[in-house]
Design a protein that fits this description.
The chain is α/β, with parallel strands linked by helices. The chain has 14 helices and 18 strands. Strands 7, 8, 9, 10, 11, 12, 15, 16 and 18 form a 9-stranded mixed sheet that branches. Helix 1 crosses helix 13 and helix 3 packs across helix 4. It is globular, with a radius of gyration of 20 Å. Bound molecules: NADPH dihydro-nicotinamide-adenine-dinucleotide phosphate. The site of NADPH dihydro-nicotinamide-adenine-dinucleotide phosphate has 34 residues, from helix 1 and helix 13.
Length: 401
Protein backbone atom coordinates (compact mmCIF):
# COMPACT_ATOMS: atom_id res chain seq x y z
CA UNK A 1 0.00 0.00 0.00
CA UNK A 2 2.71 2.54 0.90
CA UNK A 3 6.45 3.24 0.73
CA UNK A 4 8.19 4.68 3.75
CA UNK A 5 11.70 6.11 4.09
CA UNK A 6 13.03 5.87 7.66
CA UNK A 7 16.05 8.08 8.50
CA UNK A 8 18.28 7.17 11.48
CA UNK A 9 19.38 3.72 12.67
CA UNK A 10 19.66 4.01 16.47
CA UNK A 11 17.63 2.34 19.24
CA UNK A 12 14.32 4.03 18.38
CA UNK A 13 14.65 3.36 14.67
CA UNK A 14 15.38 -0.30 15.32
CA UNK A 15 11.96 -0.62 17.03
CA UNK A 16 10.07 1.58 14.55
CA UNK A 17 11.53 -0.27 11.54
CA UNK A 18 10.68 -3.67 12.99
CA UNK A 19 7.16 -2.55 13.90
CA UNK A 20 6.67 -1.23 10.33
CA UNK A 21 7.84 -4.63 9.03
CA UNK A 22 5.36 -6.35 11.38
CA UNK A 23 2.63 -4.19 9.78
CA UNK A 24 3.74 -4.84 6.22
CA UNK A 25 0.22 -4.76 4.82
CA UNK A 26 0.43 -0.97 5.36
CA UNK A 27 4.20 -0.51 5.01
CA UNK A 28 4.65 -2.49 1.80
CA UNK A 29 8.09 -1.04 1.03
CA UNK A 30 10.55 0.11 3.72
CA UNK A 31 13.79 1.97 3.02
CA UNK A 32 16.15 2.57 5.96
CA UNK A 33 18.86 5.22 5.59
CA UNK A 34 21.32 6.67 8.08
CA UNK A 35 24.76 8.20 8.47
CA UNK A 36 26.34 4.80 9.16
CA UNK A 37 24.94 2.36 6.57
CA UNK A 38 26.27 -0.72 8.40
CA UNK A 39 23.80 -0.02 11.26
CA UNK A 40 20.93 0.00 8.71
CA UNK A 41 22.21 -3.28 7.24
CA UNK A 42 22.33 -4.87 10.69
CA UNK A 43 18.72 -3.89 11.45
CA UNK A 44 17.61 -5.02 7.97
CA UNK A 45 19.31 -8.41 8.40
CA UNK A 46 17.75 -9.01 11.83
CA UNK A 47 14.31 -8.20 10.44
CA UNK A 48 14.78 -10.35 7.34
CA UNK A 49 16.01 -13.31 9.39
CA UNK A 50 13.00 -13.16 11.70
CA UNK A 51 10.13 -11.83 9.58
CA UNK A 52 11.32 -12.40 5.98
CA UNK A 53 10.52 -8.78 5.19
CA UNK A 54 13.07 -7.11 2.94
CA UNK A 55 14.33 -3.63 3.92
CA UNK A 56 16.34 -1.58 1.42
CA UNK A 57 19.19 0.40 3.01
CA UNK A 58 21.13 3.55 2.08
CA UNK A 59 23.74 5.96 3.40
CA UNK A 60 22.65 9.57 4.01
CA UNK A 61 23.93 12.69 5.71
CA UNK A 62 20.61 14.18 6.77
CA UNK A 63 22.24 17.55 7.50
CA UNK A 64 22.71 17.89 3.75
CA UNK A 65 19.52 18.94 1.99
CA UNK A 66 20.76 18.10 -1.54
CA UNK A 67 21.59 14.54 -0.45
CA UNK A 68 18.15 14.26 1.14
CA UNK A 69 16.36 15.45 -1.99
CA UNK A 70 18.35 13.00 -4.13
CA UNK A 71 17.50 10.11 -1.77
CA UNK A 72 13.79 11.01 -1.65
CA UNK A 73 13.62 11.43 -5.44
CA UNK A 74 15.46 8.15 -5.90
CA UNK A 75 13.32 6.10 -3.50
CA UNK A 76 9.94 7.87 -3.98
CA UNK A 77 8.46 7.32 -0.50
CA UNK A 78 4.91 8.34 0.49
CA UNK A 79 6.24 9.36 3.91
CA UNK A 80 9.62 10.21 5.47
CA UNK A 81 10.01 9.16 9.11
CA UNK A 82 12.74 11.21 10.77
CA UNK A 83 14.14 9.08 13.59
CA UNK A 84 17.64 10.54 13.48
CA UNK A 85 18.27 13.43 15.88
CA UNK A 86 16.36 16.68 16.48
CA UNK A 87 19.22 18.55 14.72
CA UNK A 88 18.04 17.08 11.41
CA UNK A 89 14.35 18.10 11.72
CA UNK A 90 14.56 21.26 9.60
CA UNK A 91 16.67 19.89 6.75
CA UNK A 92 14.42 16.84 6.44
CA UNK A 93 11.26 19.00 6.62
CA UNK A 94 12.63 21.28 3.89
CA UNK A 95 13.53 18.31 1.68
CA UNK A 96 9.97 16.98 2.16
CA UNK A 97 8.51 20.34 1.09
CA UNK A 98 10.80 20.34 -1.97
CA UNK A 99 9.78 16.79 -2.95
CA UNK A 100 6.09 16.99 -1.91
CA UNK A 101 6.29 14.10 0.58
CA UNK A 102 4.66 13.75 4.03
CA UNK A 103 6.90 14.03 7.13
CA UNK A 104 6.93 12.65 10.69
CA UNK A 105 9.37 13.02 13.60
CA UNK A 106 9.68 12.14 17.30
CA UNK A 107 11.52 15.13 18.75
CA UNK A 108 11.45 18.90 18.71
CA UNK A 109 14.05 20.80 16.63
CA UNK A 110 17.09 21.90 18.56
CA UNK A 111 20.08 23.78 17.21
CA UNK A 112 23.35 21.91 17.93
CA UNK A 113 24.96 25.10 19.30
CA UNK A 114 22.08 26.19 21.58
CA UNK A 115 20.67 23.84 24.21
CA UNK A 116 17.10 25.11 23.74
CA UNK A 117 14.28 23.42 21.92
CA UNK A 118 11.02 24.97 20.77
CA UNK A 119 8.47 24.44 17.99
CA UNK A 120 8.86 27.95 16.51
CA UNK A 121 10.92 26.95 13.49
CA UNK A 122 8.96 23.78 12.76
CA UNK A 123 5.59 25.57 13.06
CA UNK A 124 6.97 28.31 10.77
CA UNK A 125 7.06 25.67 8.00
CA UNK A 126 3.26 25.23 8.18
CA UNK A 127 2.77 27.55 5.18
CA UNK A 128 5.35 25.62 3.13
CA UNK A 129 3.67 22.30 3.97
CA UNK A 130 0.24 23.73 3.06
CA UNK A 131 1.53 25.07 -0.29
CA UNK A 132 3.09 21.68 -1.06
CA UNK A 133 -0.19 19.96 -0.05
CA UNK A 134 1.64 17.70 2.40
CA UNK A 135 1.31 16.79 6.06
CA UNK A 136 3.91 17.05 8.82
CA UNK A 137 3.28 15.22 12.11
CA UNK A 138 5.50 16.48 14.93
CA UNK A 139 6.55 14.51 18.00
CA UNK A 140 5.13 11.03 17.34
CA UNK A 141 7.03 9.28 20.15
CA UNK A 142 5.83 8.68 23.72
CA UNK A 143 6.57 12.04 25.30
CA UNK A 144 6.00 13.97 23.15
CA UNK A 145 3.54 11.79 21.30
CA UNK A 146 1.41 9.41 23.32
CA UNK A 147 1.20 11.93 26.18
CA UNK A 148 -0.32 14.46 23.73
CA UNK A 149 -2.76 11.77 22.56
CA UNK A 150 -3.74 10.91 26.17
CA UNK A 151 -4.54 14.62 26.75
CA UNK A 152 -6.45 14.86 23.46
CA UNK A 153 -8.42 11.72 24.37
CA UNK A 154 -9.32 13.26 27.73
CA UNK A 155 -10.40 16.49 26.05
CA UNK A 156 -12.40 14.75 23.32
CA UNK A 157 -14.01 11.90 25.29
CA UNK A 158 -13.70 12.33 29.08
CA UNK A 159 -14.00 16.01 30.08
CA UNK A 160 -16.00 19.14 29.25
CA UNK A 161 -13.02 21.23 30.34
CA UNK A 162 -9.49 20.36 31.44
CA UNK A 163 -7.78 22.62 34.02
CA UNK A 164 -4.63 20.81 35.21
CA UNK A 165 -2.24 18.35 33.58
CA UNK A 166 0.82 16.68 35.12
CA UNK A 167 2.80 14.49 32.73
CA UNK A 168 4.71 11.83 34.68
CA UNK A 169 7.59 9.92 33.10
CA UNK A 170 9.07 7.11 35.17
CA UNK A 171 11.83 4.79 34.03
CA UNK A 172 12.49 2.30 36.82
CA UNK A 173 14.79 0.23 34.63
CA UNK A 174 18.24 -0.89 35.75
CA UNK A 175 20.88 -1.42 33.02
CA UNK A 176 23.67 -2.44 35.41
CA UNK A 177 26.08 0.35 34.38
CA UNK A 178 27.17 3.00 36.93
CA UNK A 179 26.01 5.66 34.44
CA UNK A 180 24.30 5.48 31.04
CA UNK A 181 21.43 7.23 29.28
CA UNK A 182 18.46 5.39 27.79
CA UNK A 183 18.38 7.40 24.60
CA UNK A 184 20.90 9.54 22.76
CA UNK A 185 23.23 10.78 25.58
CA UNK A 186 23.76 14.21 24.05
CA UNK A 187 20.04 14.96 23.70
CA UNK A 188 19.25 13.38 27.08
CA UNK A 189 21.90 15.24 29.09
CA UNK A 190 21.19 18.59 27.44
CA UNK A 191 17.52 18.15 28.37
CA UNK A 192 18.05 17.07 31.98
CA UNK A 193 20.71 19.66 32.87
CA UNK A 194 18.67 22.58 31.48
CA UNK A 195 16.48 24.89 33.60
CA UNK A 196 13.00 23.57 34.37
CA UNK A 197 9.85 25.36 33.19
CA UNK A 198 6.11 24.94 33.55
CA UNK A 199 3.11 26.82 32.22
CA UNK A 200 0.26 28.40 34.16
CA UNK A 201 -2.37 31.10 33.81
CA UNK A 202 -1.93 34.17 36.02
CA UNK A 203 -4.78 35.83 37.98
CA UNK A 204 -5.81 37.72 34.80
CA UNK A 205 -6.08 34.49 32.84
CA UNK A 206 -2.91 35.15 30.83
CA UNK A 207 -0.62 32.16 30.14
CA UNK A 208 3.00 32.46 31.32
CA UNK A 209 6.05 30.22 31.73
CA UNK A 210 7.58 29.89 35.20
CA UNK A 211 11.29 29.03 35.12
CA UNK A 212 12.97 26.88 37.80
CA UNK A 213 16.58 25.85 38.38
CA UNK A 214 17.53 22.42 36.95
CA UNK A 215 15.67 19.70 38.95
CA UNK A 216 14.78 22.26 41.66
CA UNK A 217 11.21 20.98 42.24
CA UNK A 218 10.74 17.39 43.37
CA UNK A 219 7.71 15.31 44.30
CA UNK A 220 7.24 11.65 45.15
CA UNK A 221 4.69 9.80 43.00
CA UNK A 222 3.44 6.25 43.55
CA UNK A 223 3.63 4.73 40.04
CA UNK A 224 1.34 1.70 39.48
CA UNK A 225 3.36 -1.54 38.99
CA UNK A 226 6.58 0.37 39.87
CA UNK A 227 6.20 2.01 43.29
CA UNK A 228 7.16 5.36 44.82
CA UNK A 229 9.80 7.37 42.93
CA UNK A 230 11.39 10.81 43.23
CA UNK A 231 10.08 12.81 40.27
CA UNK A 232 11.65 16.10 39.18
CA UNK A 233 10.03 19.00 37.34
CA UNK A 234 11.59 19.58 33.91
CA UNK A 235 10.73 21.44 30.73
CA UNK A 236 9.41 19.14 28.04
CA UNK A 237 8.34 20.05 24.55
CA UNK A 238 4.76 18.73 24.51
CA UNK A 239 3.81 21.44 27.04
CA UNK A 240 4.37 24.10 24.35
CA UNK A 241 1.67 22.72 22.06
CA UNK A 242 -0.67 21.37 24.75
CA UNK A 243 -0.78 24.77 26.52
CA UNK A 244 -2.18 26.17 23.26
CA UNK A 245 -4.47 23.29 22.29
CA UNK A 246 -6.17 22.17 25.53
CA UNK A 247 -9.20 24.34 26.26
CA UNK A 248 -9.58 25.75 29.78
CA UNK A 249 -6.07 24.74 30.85
CA UNK A 250 -4.78 26.56 33.95
CA UNK A 251 -1.50 24.71 34.51
CA UNK A 252 0.65 22.06 32.86
CA UNK A 253 3.82 20.50 34.32
CA UNK A 254 6.16 17.64 33.42
CA UNK A 255 7.99 15.38 35.89
CA UNK A 256 10.63 12.71 35.25
CA UNK A 257 12.13 10.19 37.67
CA UNK A 258 15.87 9.98 38.33
CA UNK A 259 17.75 7.75 40.74
CA UNK A 260 20.34 9.27 43.11
CA UNK A 261 23.24 7.58 41.29
CA UNK A 262 22.24 9.09 37.93
CA UNK A 263 21.92 12.55 39.49
CA UNK A 264 25.24 12.33 41.35
CA UNK A 265 27.08 11.28 38.16
CA UNK A 266 25.36 13.96 36.11
CA UNK A 267 26.15 16.75 38.61
CA UNK A 268 29.75 15.63 38.82
CA UNK A 269 30.10 15.57 35.01
CA UNK A 270 28.45 19.00 34.83
CA UNK A 271 30.71 20.43 37.55
CA UNK A 272 33.85 19.39 35.67
CA UNK A 273 32.53 20.76 32.37
CA UNK A 274 31.83 17.46 30.59
CA UNK A 275 28.30 18.54 29.59
CA UNK A 276 29.65 21.63 27.77
CA UNK A 277 28.73 22.13 24.10
CA UNK A 278 31.45 24.68 23.32
CA UNK A 279 34.67 23.39 21.77
CA UNK A 280 37.82 23.12 23.89
CA UNK A 281 41.31 22.49 22.52
CA UNK A 282 43.08 19.31 23.67
CA UNK A 283 46.62 18.68 22.34
CA UNK A 284 45.84 20.86 19.31
CA UNK A 285 42.54 19.05 18.60
CA UNK A 286 39.18 20.81 19.01
CA UNK A 287 36.72 18.73 21.05
CA UNK A 288 33.14 19.31 22.26
CA UNK A 289 33.12 17.84 25.82
CA UNK A 290 29.58 16.44 25.48
CA UNK A 291 30.53 14.70 22.19
CA UNK A 292 33.50 13.08 23.90
CA UNK A 293 31.28 11.94 26.77
CA UNK A 294 28.80 10.43 24.27
CA UNK A 295 31.63 8.35 22.79
CA UNK A 296 32.62 7.08 26.25
CA UNK A 297 29.14 6.15 27.47
CA UNK A 298 27.40 2.89 26.52
CA UNK A 299 25.45 3.13 23.25
CA UNK A 300 21.75 3.30 24.32
CA UNK A 301 20.95 0.88 21.49
CA UNK A 302 23.12 -1.72 23.27
CA UNK A 303 21.36 -1.51 26.66
CA UNK A 304 18.45 -3.78 25.77
CA UNK A 305 19.90 -7.11 26.85
CA UNK A 306 20.96 -5.86 30.30
CA UNK A 307 18.02 -3.61 31.24
CA UNK A 308 15.44 -5.00 33.68
CA UNK A 309 12.42 -3.31 35.29
CA UNK A 310 9.54 -1.24 33.99
CA UNK A 311 8.63 2.17 32.64
CA UNK A 312 5.41 3.94 33.51
CA UNK A 313 4.53 7.09 31.56
CA UNK A 314 1.22 8.88 31.76
CA UNK A 315 -0.84 11.97 32.47
CA UNK A 316 -2.79 13.05 35.54
CA UNK A 317 -5.61 15.17 34.18
CA UNK A 318 -8.07 17.21 36.24
CA UNK A 319 -11.09 19.20 35.12
CA UNK A 320 -14.87 19.26 34.91
CA UNK A 321 -17.43 16.81 33.49
CA UNK A 322 -21.18 17.49 33.66
CA UNK A 323 -20.65 20.19 36.29
CA UNK A 324 -18.56 17.95 38.61
CA UNK A 325 -14.80 17.91 39.33
CA UNK A 326 -13.07 14.89 37.79
CA UNK A 327 -9.49 13.60 37.89
CA UNK A 328 -8.05 10.70 35.91
CA UNK A 329 -4.65 9.12 35.44
CA UNK A 330 -4.02 7.63 31.99
CA UNK A 331 -0.82 5.62 31.72
CA UNK A 332 1.11 2.81 30.08
CA UNK A 333 3.46 0.37 31.79
CA UNK A 334 6.17 -1.28 29.73
CA UNK A 335 8.57 -4.05 30.73
CA UNK A 336 12.18 -3.65 29.50
CA UNK A 337 12.81 -7.36 29.01
CA UNK A 338 9.51 -7.94 27.18
CA UNK A 339 10.46 -5.10 24.79
CA UNK A 340 13.90 -6.64 24.31
CA UNK A 341 12.49 -10.07 23.53
CA UNK A 342 10.21 -8.58 20.87
CA UNK A 343 12.51 -6.01 19.24
CA UNK A 344 16.04 -6.29 20.64
CA UNK A 345 15.66 -2.87 22.30
CA UNK A 346 14.87 -1.61 25.82
CA UNK A 347 11.59 0.06 26.78
CA UNK A 348 12.65 3.70 26.21
CA UNK A 349 13.39 2.92 22.55
CA UNK A 350 10.28 0.72 22.38
CA UNK A 351 7.89 3.31 23.83
CA UNK A 352 9.18 5.81 21.24
CA UNK A 353 9.48 3.52 18.19
CA UNK A 354 5.99 2.00 18.47
CA UNK A 355 4.15 5.38 18.43
CA UNK A 356 6.38 6.51 15.55
CA UNK A 357 5.08 3.54 13.55
CA UNK A 358 1.47 4.19 14.67
CA UNK A 359 1.68 7.87 13.67
CA UNK A 360 2.97 6.78 10.26
CA UNK A 361 0.13 4.25 9.97
CA UNK A 362 -2.43 6.97 10.79
CA UNK A 363 -1.04 9.12 7.95
CA UNK A 364 -0.64 6.35 5.37
CA UNK A 365 -4.14 4.96 6.01
CA UNK A 366 -5.56 8.50 5.72
CA UNK A 367 -7.08 8.31 9.24
CA UNK A 368 -5.18 11.44 10.22
CA UNK A 369 -4.85 13.78 7.27
CA UNK A 370 -4.51 17.43 6.32
CA UNK A 371 -2.11 19.90 4.74
CA UNK A 372 0.28 21.70 7.07
CA UNK A 373 2.28 21.00 10.22
CA UNK A 374 0.41 19.30 13.08
CA UNK A 375 0.94 18.21 16.67
CA UNK A 376 -0.48 14.91 17.86
CA UNK A 377 -3.42 16.45 19.79
CA UNK A 378 -4.76 18.06 16.60
CA UNK A 379 -6.44 14.78 15.55
CA UNK A 380 -9.04 12.31 16.82
CA UNK A 381 -7.22 10.43 19.59
CA UNK A 382 -9.38 7.28 19.54
CA UNK A 383 -7.92 5.46 16.49
CA UNK A 384 -4.39 6.06 17.82
CA UNK A 385 -5.37 4.83 21.31
CA UNK A 386 -6.90 1.68 19.72
CA UNK A 387 -3.61 1.03 17.88
CA UNK A 388 -1.58 1.47 21.10
CA UNK A 389 -3.56 -1.43 22.56
CA UNK A 390 -2.96 -3.62 19.50
CA UNK A 391 0.70 -2.76 18.88
CA UNK A 392 2.22 -3.41 22.32
CA UNK A 393 1.52 -0.29 24.41
CA UNK A 394 -1.77 -0.98 26.23
CA UNK A 395 -3.00 1.87 28.44
CA UNK A 396 -5.13 2.11 31.57
CA UNK A 397 -7.35 4.82 33.03
CA UNK A 398 -7.52 5.21 36.80
CA UNK A 399 -10.35 7.39 38.16
CA UNK A 400 -8.84 9.48 40.97
CA UNK A 401 -11.82 11.69 41.89
P1 LIG B 1 20.50 7.29 18.62
O1 LIG B 1 21.59 8.23 18.91
O2 LIG B 1 20.55 5.88 19.13
O3 LIG B 1 20.27 7.19 17.03
C1 LIG B 1 20.29 8.32 16.20
C2 LIG B 1 20.54 7.84 14.79
O4 LIG B 1 20.52 8.99 13.92
C3 LIG B 1 21.90 7.16 14.61
O5 LIG B 1 21.73 6.04 13.78
C4 LIG B 1 22.72 8.25 13.92
O6 LIG B 1 23.74 7.79 13.07
C5 LIG B 1 21.65 8.93 13.08
N1 LIG B 1 22.09 10.25 12.68
C6 LIG B 1 22.61 11.23 13.46
N2 LIG B 1 22.96 12.29 12.72
C7 LIG B 1 22.66 11.96 11.45
C8 LIG B 1 22.80 12.63 10.21
N3 LIG B 1 23.30 13.86 10.13
N4 LIG B 1 22.40 12.00 9.09
C9 LIG B 1 21.88 10.75 9.14
N5 LIG B 1 21.73 10.06 10.27
C10 LIG B 1 22.10 10.66 11.41
O7 LIG B 1 19.15 8.00 19.13
P2 LIG B 1 17.79 7.31 19.58
O8 LIG B 1 17.44 6.22 18.65
O9 LIG B 1 17.88 7.04 21.04
O10 LIG B 1 16.78 8.53 19.39
C11 LIG B 1 16.28 8.86 18.11
C12 LIG B 1 15.35 10.06 18.20
O11 LIG B 1 14.24 9.77 19.05
C13 LIG B 1 16.03 11.31 18.78
O12 LIG B 1 15.59 12.43 18.04
C14 LIG B 1 15.47 11.40 20.18
O13 LIG B 1 15.46 12.71 20.67
C15 LIG B 1 14.06 10.87 19.95
N6 LIG B 1 13.41 10.38 21.16
C16 LIG B 1 12.10 10.74 21.36
C17 LIG B 1 11.42 10.29 22.48
C18 LIG B 1 9.97 10.58 22.63
O14 LIG B 1 9.32 9.98 23.51
N7 LIG B 1 9.36 11.45 21.83
C19 LIG B 1 12.09 9.48 23.52
C20 LIG B 1 13.44 9.07 23.16
C21 LIG B 1 14.06 9.54 22.03
P3 LIG B 1 25.12 7.14 13.62
O15 LIG B 1 24.73 5.72 13.88
O16 LIG B 1 26.08 7.32 12.52
O17 LIG B 1 25.47 7.90 14.87
Amino acid sequence: MARVLIIGAGGVSRVATKKCAMNNKVFTKIILASRTKSKCDMIAKEIFDELHVEIKTAQIDADNIDELIALIEGTKPDLVMNIALPYQDLTIMDACIECGVDYLDTANYEHPDTAKFEYKEQWARDEGFKKAGIMGLLGSGFDPGVTNVFCAYAQQYLFDEINYIDILDCNAGDHGYPFATNFNPEINLREVSANGRYWEKDENGKGRWIETKPLEIKMVWDYPEVGKKDSYLMYHEEMESLSKNIKGLKRIRFFMTFGQSYLTHMRCLENVGMLGIDEVEVDGVKVVPLHLLKELLPDPASLGAKTVGKTNIGCVIEGVKAGKRKKVYIYNVCDHQACYRETGAQAVSYTTGVPAMIGAKMILEGIWNGSGVFNMENFDAKPFMDELDKQGLPWKIMEME
